[in-house]
Amino acid sequence: MIQLAGAFLLGALTVAGFAPLYLFLLPVVTLALLLALIETRRTPHNGFKLGFAFGLGHFLAGVSWVYVSLHDFGAMPAPVAAGVTLLFCAYLALFPACTMALAARIEAPVVRRLVVFPAAWIVTEWIRGWLLTGFPWLAIGYSQAPGSPLAGLAPIGGLYLVGLATVLSAGLARHTVGRWRSLAWRPALGLLALWLVAGGFKTVQWTTPEGEPLTVSLLQGNVPQSMKWRPEQLLSTLQLYDAMVQASNARLIILPETAVPLFLQEVPPEFLQRIAQHARAHGADVLIGLPERGEDRGYFNSVVSIGASPSQTYRKSHLVPFGEFIPLRPLLAPIVNSLAIPLTDFSRGAITQQPLEVAGQRVAINICYEDAFGEEIIRQLPAATLLVNVSNVAWFGDSIAPMQHLQIAQMRSLETGRFMLRSTNTGMTAVVDPRGNVVASAATFKTESVEAQVRGYTGATPYVRFGNLPAIAFGGLMLLAAFGIPALRARLAAKH
Questions:
Q1: Is the pLDDT assigned to residue 179 strictly greater than 80?
Q2: Which residues of 56-70 are buried (b: 16+ CB within 10 A; e: fewer)?
C-alpha cells in the first residue's frame, strides 16, 4: 500500500513538469523513481499496479478540469461528474500500467531501463493518442517544450521522439545510481551526451522566413461560457467583436472558435458587411469562428474568412467525443442528452483541406483540440506559412487546461518551424514563435486584443516530412529487439 501511495504521488508530482510551471527536469526524476520503485519487487503484476497508481495520480492531477466541464458547464450532478472523471483517468492510467508491466518482465537491468522502459512508454502513449479518437494530453514529451534541451529533437521526430528521449533520460538516471551506493559513470556520460546533442539541434534553422512582416490581431472576447449561447447575449456578443475588429488596423484579424454563436446562414448581414468593409479598407482579412450548416443538413465547426481575399472556409475534422459528437450513440445518447452542451452532432470536415490564402499568407487552420495531434497539423504543410488555432476552452473554467493547451501549441511550433497564432475566448490567447516561445499574450478572463508582427515561414522540418513514423518505428524496433530476439535465440537453442 505504501508503494502504491508513493507511485500515485510521483504521478501527481509529474504534472508540475508541464505548464504552467514548466519544470522540465521533474518528469525525468519522477519516472526514474517510479522505475526504482518497481524494481524493488520486479513482477509484471506489481509493475502493472504501480504503473496504474502512477497514471491515476498523474491524470487526476493533470486533467481534473474534465470535472469542471461536466459539472460546472455541462450541468452533470457532482457525484456523477466526479465518477465519470475518475473512470476517464483510470482508463488513461492503463497505458503507463501496461508499460511498467512490460518493463518488469525484463531480467537484464540495462535492457529494462534503457530499451523496454522508454520504448514501451512512447509506443503506449502513441496508442493513447489515436485509440478511441485519441487523447494525447499530457504526453511526456510536452513537458520539455519549449525550454528543455530535449526540445531540440521536436523538429526531427516530433512529440514522441522528445518523449522517447525524456523517458530514456529517466532510465539513464536510474542506471547511473543503479546500486545507489556507487555511481555508474557510463550512463551518466550517456545522459549528458543525449542532452548536449539534443540541445545542439536547437541551433539549427530548419525553416526560413518569407515575405514582409505581417501585423496580426488576436481577439479574446471573454464571453462567459454560461452566457455564450443564450439568445439575450447574442446582440452584445456581435457588438463586442464588431468593435474589436473596427479598432484593429492589422492585416490579419482572428476571432476565437464559435465566437459568433449563430450558424453562418443566420448571422445578420449587416454584421458581416461592416467587418468586410473594414477589412477591405485596410487590405486585411478576418477569420471568424462560427458553426456552419452544410448542404446535406449537417453542420460544421468552421472558420470562415472575409475581407480583401476571396472568402474561404475551414471545417473542423477531428471532433471531440461527447462535446461535438456522441460515440456509441444508442448506448450513450441518453447520458449526453442530459448535459447542457450545445451542438453535440457536428459533422466532420474533410481530412485533407488546403491552407487558407489570406493576408498574403497560406494559413493552416486548426480548431481547439485539433492542435493536440501533430501528425494531423502537418497535412497542410509544407504549403502553409502560418499556423492558426482558434479555441474556446472556457468549458474548463479557471483551471490549468488553457495553459496546458498553450504548451501543446508550443510543441506544434517547434515541430513545424512556424508561428502559431492562438485566438481563444477566455485564454490563453497568444503568439508563439517558431522556437516555441510565447512572444505576446493576453491575460486570461480579460477582454483583450493581442497585437503582434509575425513572419510567414517556408521549408519542411524532418517531422513535417515524416511525421511520427520514425520515432514510433524506432520504439517498436527497440521492443522487438528486447522481446523478440531473446525468444528467437531460445527457440534456436532448443532445436540444437
A1: no
A2: bbbbbbbbbbbbbbb
Identify whether the C-beta of residue 495 lies closer than 8 Å to the C-beta of residue 410.
no
Domains present along the chain, CATH in parentheses: 2-204+469-495 (no CATH), 209-460 (3.60.110.10)
- With H, G, I as helix, E, B as strand and everything else as coil, classify residue 118: helix
> Has residue 174 got a pLDDT over 60?
yes
Three-state DSSP state, 21: coil
pLDDT at 344 over 70: no
Is 89 a residue of the active site? Answer: no
Q: Is 70 helix (H, G, I), strand (E, B) or coil?
A: helix
Q: How far, in Å, CA of 393 to CA of 445, rounded?
A: 11
Distance in angstroms (rounded) separating the CA atoms of residues 452 and 232:
33
User: What does the alpha-carbon distance between residue 18 and residue 139 come to, in Å, rounded to a whole number?
Assistant: 10
Give the per-residue pLDDT at 16.
98
For β-strands 252-254 and 208-220, DSSP reports them as parallel
Q: With pLDDT > 90 as the criterion, what percentage of the chain qualifies?
A: 79
Give residue-wise pLDDT tens across range 257-295: 999 999 999 999 999 999 999 999 999 999 999 999 987
d(CA 150, CA 172): 14
Cell, residue 491: 527457440
* From 49, 98, 228, 257, the catalytic residue: 257
Q: How far is Cα 430 from Cα 444, in angstroms, rounded to an integer?
A: 10
| pLDDT confidence bin for 298, thresholds 50/70/90 | confident
Q: Provide the residue type at 366 as one letter.
A: N
Reported as a single tens digit per residue, the pLDDT across 1-47 is 899 999 999 999 999 999 999 999 999 999 999 999 999 999 999 99
CB contact at 8 A, 100 and 50: yes
pTM metric for this prediction: 0.94
Confidence of residue 346 (pLDDT cuts 50, 70, 90): confident
Q: Do residues 174 and 35 lie in contact, with contact meaning Cβ atoms separated by under 8 Å?
A: yes
Task: Determine whether 257 is an active site residue.
Answer: yes
DSSP string for 141-204: GGGGTTTSGGGGGHHHHHHHHHHHHHHHHHHHHHHHTTTSSS--HHHHHHHHHHHHHHHHHTT-
Query: How far is it, in rounded angstroms, from Cα 70 to Cα 22?
Result: 27
Give catalytic status of residue 368 as yes or no.
Answer: yes
Q: DSSP secondary-structure letter at 24?
A: T
Question: One of 202, 368, 415, 448 is an active-site residue; which one?
Answer: 368
CB 216 within 8 Å of CB 254 = yes
